[in-house]
Give the backbone structure.
Amino acid sequence: MRLAFFGDVVGKAGRNAIIDRLPGIRRDLSLDFVIVNAENAAGGFGLTGKIAEEIFAAGADCITLGNHSWDQRDMLTYIEREERLIRPFNYPESLDIPGRGAQLFTLEDGRRVYVVQIHGRIFMDSLDDPFQGAQRAIQAAPLGMAADAVVLEIHAEATSEKSAMAHFLDGQASLVVGAHTHTPTADAQIYPGGTAFQSDAGMCGDYDSVIGMKKEIVLERTVTRLPAPRMEPADGEATVCGVYVETDDKTGLATRIDPIRVGGRLKQAFPEV
């Protein structure tokens, strides 16, 4: 199976880039399944149903959220009727949180892809234990039994927590990939048990910025410590960043992982297939 995960879509520049480029990327890589994190797509904070529909129409099979899941109010109701939208799994079970943190998707050929999102707890607003949450989610649709591929996104700040999650799930997931820090890392690899990993897929956004936000506003706030305008997404040419993974259809484990970087300021990277 050929899978791709694209990191946080930030603002108009990021969403225009993913909408414009995803159809060609999907065609050129013959992708079977595409996941896009879009929790920053609406003005840098949250996601709307309208923007979600545009990203689905461009070729996303699943959209993930994160710590900005509820920044746009219509997401509270949209997520209930849109099963392709995933928010963090590890909210306390006692809370009545809208939507779902994991979903099993069936492709036209019958193969099944299970997508889970886990929210980290180091330097993040704390939810329930991400490791126990991940184990509980994975046990609901085990790789090689209920699912032909399992993708877990860990939406977290700390690279150590992301790496630890991949080691924790090595052999139980096809891909463990980080999001949230908006900077692509250079550690794409396959762990000994067959789980592909990259600490952060990066963002789909303008990198002439501070993690996607206009640098002038961020610098004013950071350097002077005085009140400044509300942060706004940078609006220059965006780079589409993500990871490409191939799996063994017999085991569901990864056989290949490569970074994707298309357009914008970053050094380009595109898998040869």
The first strand starts at residue 2 and ends at 6.
